[in-house]
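Our preliminary data section would be incomplete without showing what the modeling component actually yields. Below, a chain of 738 amino acids is followed by its predicted structure, encoded as tokens that our downstream tools consume directly.
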Amino acid sequence: MAPRNKEGKNRKNSLNDMITRKLAVFFLVILLAFIMLIARLFNISFQDGEKYKKQVLSQQKYDNKTIHYKRGSIVDRNGTVLAYSAQVYNVILDTKRLNSDPESIEPTLVALNQCFNIDPSEVRNYMRDNPNNKYHILVKEVPYDQVTAYEEAKAADDSQISTYGIWFEKQYKRSYPYGSLAADVIGFTTGDDIGQYGLEQYYNDVLAGSDGREYGYLTGGNALERTTIPAVNGNTICTTIDAYIQGICEEKILEFNMAHYGEYREGEPGSDNTGVIIMDVHTGEVLAMASYPTYDLNDPYDLSAFYSAEDIQNMKDNDTYYEACNDLWKNFCISQSYEPGSVCKTFTVAAALDCGAIHDTDTYMCNGYISFGEGDHEIRIRCHSRYGEGLLTVKGAIEVSCNVALIQIGQKMGVDTYLKYFKNFGFGLKTNIDLAGEMRTSSLVFTKDTMGPTELATSTFGQGFNVTMIQTISAFCSLVNGGYYYQPHMVNKIMDDNGNTVETIDPVLLRQTVSSSVSDLLRDYCIGVVEEGTGTYARPAGYKIGGKTGTAEHSGQGKIDYVVSFMGFAPADDPQIAIYVVIDRPNSSSQDTATRWACLLCREILTDVLPYKNIYMTEPLSEKEQQELEERGSHVFTVSNNSVSDNSVSDNAVSENSVSENNVPEPKPAENNETETNKIVIDPVTGYAIDPVTGEYLDPNTLEPINNESSTIFEGDGWNTGVSNSNTNNTGPDTGPD
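Predicted structure:
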């Protein structure tokens, strides 16, 4: 037994020794590996540490992001916002991050569909084809409420929506709260926020700001830093436009074109183009500039109001769609020219009086025509009165718009003097109004080399050369304001994003066109046109105004069409505003006798504008006029106890919009913080202000009660004003094309 036990014991010891040796080898290997790992880490840390640190940091998220600026607003002279930029969001897909969390893909796609109506299948296809893309816009210009709905769904306790796969890029969308109001003046912006047409284009550098940026970078110590350069928002421009007056002009223009729709040319409105400009005669500020047809600034490419769906598709197929858009976007008042007609007789007479070629007391004989040349080369230029006007004074020639008398006046001046004044009035030159797209007319007027006796003759009554509306009304203002030519302008102030005034744009007096005495005479002549001449249809009930009618023909394609117009100013004795109405190709069988349409359109506009401007009635009313005004209703404005203050834009705030039922901005009351204000009702029959407490009539200038003992407003059924009632009816004979 002893030898067997000894043998077992030796075998057991041998096994233990073998296990010990194996363990020693294993631990030795582990030790060597650990030593090697330490050596490698030491090597990495001191030799390649910077390389690997940058590699790790590069995998962290610190992508550059653009911070979009906010484009400046456009406001009217009273602070009414006409254009602004609203904050919107682009929905951005980060395919790489969304794919990194497969379980969140389907919940995220469902949320995208519910909140933004995004087709999940389209997103899946894009993710399959672009698995590593980190920036893809799924939908643009999403409003804040939709973004909020998505964020709330993502924040829910049981939400599996991806945290980083979808994110929102903030930007701004241009918005025009009044749609088509002042479309030609304002213009619009492209998708890249670049102004097109109007103020948006002309003041693009002022309205546009500069984008900011948020980005990360590695410092010298290899620390990750984030830096934000804030965006600089654009400036706000304060225009000279009065949104209420602008709205009235556009409303009346539309009513006119609809009233004469299909009257002669089937399926067409009352004209091819209708334009109206109202300007402050003492500053050159444009209070309103309206035309027809117009378009919605929020959707400028929509032509459905003018063409059928089939026509639009045909234009797109024939590559003429954008040409039609460009025609619609052009501002008729500054971008299209025409022959002005008899409106320009005022300039001819003013020039002749100013240079001394004629005198106020001169007379002229009109036999119906005047001849140039002899025999077969004889050219007869006729007056609109076939049998002639007889003997006329200078004033009479303007009142009845006699071509023959004007030709004789032009002959007394001669070519050189005529062209000198013609240029001084600004014809053939750009006015440089601050709007994009003003037309050059230098090639459309006569020069000394191209003007002969016949050309001089036709030019005296506004034929043979072309003008724009803005040229003509700017020059006309100088005829009635004492002879001073102001550069027309649309903006009077620029403010920064905080409402601080950056720049004030004052009126620019460029030159004197005629003397003040000649200006006095021209006002008197133009008053005669409305009281006794060709412009009787233009007078608003209860007001005394001056003006001049115009008719000019332009031919083409075997037919003759006409442009009819009326240029006016009010009030007559102290002009404050000028108004120019132009109707291109009126939809009438007798276009040449449609001048009264321009007069009537002027009357409709001024009937609303003059009370709004606190210009009071001074003239007696016929029964018909009383009835018309009563149907219109009273105009209510806020005036101070001392004076009527002008509306202005606050330096620190932009007022909220107020819209009436017909989408015309409501008139804003004048403000005067230094005096108490009352609401004064303007009597539509008398034009006098009425004290809201006592009911007494107030003097239009002082707002003091009128002494009934010394000034009787009514006597019996008529007026006791000492003024003849022979011309109180706001109608007159159709005296011909002018």
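The first helix runs from residue 2 to 58. Residues 634-662, 669-679, 707-737 have pLDDT under 50 and may be disordered. Preliminary results of this kind motivate Aim 1 of the renewal.
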